[in-house]
């Protein structure tokens, strides 16, 4: 029985780390092609019946690092996020501002910046993260509210 519980826990931990196993959501890599990444994310979103959450930011962005750490630290929130969205990160920096890709999105109003896209590729929402911030981090309740807002949206 104990080994069955361990196997079950192992598979739960694998599914919980799904956010970390896609090349398009690892970090803000100026060398990545956002069009290729979007095609992969869109395919995954279509297969899984999810929305796409594009997070615009960069390695230079302190709040972007705080957001990643916050999501990683809050496992139930992370799982809720992954049930609703395929998450991808797009670099915006002096090294590569991905202007061509960004020309298809609403203009960012601060970083990190969220763009919500349905799995057909249509932008259905966008917002900066100031509304979910709390002190020097993010609010679990406000972030959960953001996720809940999009749970019923057309995929």
TrEMBL record:
SUPFAM superfamilies: Thioredoxin-like. Residues 1-18 form the signal peptide. Pfam families: Thioredoxin_7. PROSITE patterns: THIOREDOXIN_2. Residues 10-152 form the Thioredoxin domain. The keyword Coiled coil does not apply. Keywords: Signal. The keyword Ligase does not apply. Coiled coil: none annotated. This is Thioredoxin family protein. It comes from Microbulbifer pacificus.
């Amino acid at each position: 029985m104990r080994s069955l519980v361990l196997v079950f826990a192992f598979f739960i931990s694998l599914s919980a780390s799904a956010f970390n196993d896609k090349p398009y959501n690892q970090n803000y890599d100026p060398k990545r092609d956002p069009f290729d990444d979007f095609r992969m994310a869109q395919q995954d979103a279509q297969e899984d019946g999810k929305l796409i959450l594009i997070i615009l930011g960069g390695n230079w962005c302190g709040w972007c690092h705080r957001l990643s750490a916050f999501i990683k630290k809050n496992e139930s929130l992370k799982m809720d996020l992954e049930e609703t969205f395929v998450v991808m990160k797009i670099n915006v920096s002096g090294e590569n501002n991905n202007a061509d890709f960004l020309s298809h999105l609403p203009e960012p109003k601060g970083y990190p910046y969220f763009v919500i896209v349905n799995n057909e590729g249509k932008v259905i929402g966008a917002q900066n993260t100031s509304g979910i911030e709390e002190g020097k981090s993010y609010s679990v309740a406000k972030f959960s509210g953001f996720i809940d807002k999009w749970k019923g949206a057309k995929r």
